[in-house]
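Lab notes, practical 5.
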Amino acid sequence: MRTFEPIKVGDWHHLVSAYGVFRLEFLSIGTSKQRYLGISYIKIGSAPVRNVVWVANRNNPILDESGTLAIDSHGNLKISGRGRSPIILNSVQAASNTTATLPDNVNFILRELNSNGSTEQILWQSFDYPTDTLLPGMKLGINFKTGHTWSLTSWRSHKSPASGSFTFGLDPNRTSQLVILWRDNTYWTSGPWHNGSFEYVSKFSHESKPQLRYFSDENEKYFMYTVDKSIAYSRYKILPGGRVLESGDIPTPFGACSKDPWDERRELGVPRRNCQTVEILILR
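Output from the prediction step:
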């Protein structure tokens, strides 16, 4: 995708990753007519399933099928729609020679190019603005230089990708633990990270073997996970009710507080002392 090369919803155009597993497109959620620019995992089978893993305009939908994604004459990546001001995705000053790509790691990237076609710099990337889903290579943490944080925020409901009440990320007090916040109140904590594990979380997954890494220096602090290349699709997703699921829609040890039907079948071993009393408020 180069300058002035739009994705136009009316024509149902989209960008597809190299192996055809992920797709960037404008989409609707449920029966709503509102349109969102999103990235979906497409599970091919007798009944294809779309799992939305990222949404660009979650709090600012387009009201009809007039949406376009394009790189303008200034090199900015923007979403436009009928009767509305455009949404400019990149905050870094762009150049005229830019390109946007969707590689297989699902990180939608806007790059500035040199005259020979090589990459000068990355101007913007979707991994810096996750929604409710953590993918391999994404960060949960903070950049101390810019103040930018990487965290997940739940959807408002299963029918609306607008920002919900739960946030999953690094402890805002900058300790080495992950937390889930409910409206800025601590809902769940992992306990501090020590020797490759969290105090309250004995394992990270029930279906795969993710490698979780913690990094900290004077510039940034974050958690990131990777998986074996043989695993086609891996993700952690925070639900509107505060639970975190992995790619097979299996509850994970993260956020294991809410009293739902999964509780009777979990094998989590997570002490209740890392869950706070705000859980009684989640349905209000």
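Observations recorded by the TA: DSSP finds no helices and 23 strands in the chain. Confidence is low (pLDDT under 50) at residues 258-272, 277-284.
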